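Input record (one chain):
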Amino acid sequence: MSKRGFLLIVALLAAGGLGLTSAVAEYGGGKAEQAKAGAGDWALDATYIEACSCHLFCPCYFNPSPEHPYCEFNMAVKINDGHYGATSLKGVKYWLTGDLGDDFSDGKTPWLIVTFHPDSTPEQRAALGKILSKVYPVVWDKMQTDESDFTWELTDTQARAKLANGKGEMVLDLFKGNDGGKVTLHNVTYFGAESNDGFIMYKSKLHRYDGFGHKFEYSGRNAFVITIRSKGKVEAGD
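The corresponding structure, as predicted from the sequence alone:
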């Protein structure tokens, strides 16, 4: 596993002592039922449109610190297939925005905002909280939740995603290789996911976020599209 894989694997579990699953339940006003732990398993097959503040390719996948004293990112995610126990996650979308900070070798990172798509049910959000804490086991100083629809589009030359609430947007241009085709990085771990299809390289034309007191905007920086897969057992008390 890469250093960044372990590190972001150390942050979704808590935000100043608040676990991701707890944050999801709190977001639902205490009414959201968490996916029941017990017999069964979970699986995730998801495609990410992702960009960050580092230059291509993000050194955080090979080092314990980013290019700058921060690594600000957006991730627009579409679940191709998945479930947590009896809760289906197929077609669910979510958006992650945050910062890895200047040094994540201790597994601690500054902040994360989880934006849920309004079509996702309380049970699906709770299930996502369970799964993401396994794919990203890290500790965030502060974690907040939001809700918004968003567009998600891949063309031959671009990847685009935009939050309907206007807070975040990514317009990414495909990085072309010597033969004019796409460039894909293989055999590198994506966080805590068991496998992936490779990092398809892009460069940001526009990468921005403005919300919850955080604001950034970049162009010509690291970006990629990747499909990840992971699975596990649903454990009692999980």
